[in-house]
Amino acid sequence: MWNLPNILTLCRFLLIPVYLIIFGAGYPKVAFFVLLAAGLTDVLDGYIARKRKLVTQLGSMLDPLADKSMMIAVILSLVLSQMISWQAAAAMFLRDAGMIAGSAFFHFRGKMTVPANALGKLTTVLYYVSILLVVFQLPYAAAYLWFVIAVSFIASMIYIVQFHSLNRDQAATEQTKGDNRPHM
Asked: Please, what is the angle between helix 118-135 and helix 57-80, to 10°?
């Protein structure tokens, strides 16, 4: 249950208050590097889990929760410091909170969850770039952020379609198995 990838995921949860404390103390650029450290633990835990065949149900549930929780902390810090608009924050929060709530709801109902795909991973990288642009006050940060928000909603729609398809296929397989039982 508790293996190295899951411990790295736990570390990512622990970096959330570190990020918030540093950001709140007035050091958003330093806080960005804490966010990067969290991102590196995400890459590392995924790589180790797949490479050493240490993928667990706990890790599959905690990993995206850690990612989304960190992103929500970042969104809140950026909007409260007025580095991003409340509209952008609301769109980002709505998407991430919806992903967390939806995943938890369906997980606890015994439904299969969709693993991260290439578009989801790309969206995460794009968010990191947009946060970099915002924190370091680089040109076109707001426009780029809205582009990434649009991409993230497209990725979410793809996840929903994949989720529906995966669980429909699972239900059909279970139905077929039930039809093959001997009748008495």
From this structure: 30
